[in-house]
Amino acid sequence: DIVMTQSPDSLAVSLGERATINCKSSQSVLHSSNSKTYLAWYQQKPGQPPKLLIYWASTRESGVPDRFSGSGSGTDFTLTISSLQAEDVAVYYCQQHYTTPLTFGGGTKVEIK
Amino acid sequence: EVQLVESGGGLVQTGGSLRLSCAASGFSLSDYSMKWVRQAPGKGLEWVSYISSTSSTVYYADSVKGRFTVSRDNAKNSLFLQMNNLRADDTAVYYCARGYGSASFLINLWGQGTLVTVSS
Question: Are B102 and B53 in contact (CB under 8 A)?
Answer without folding.
Answer: yes
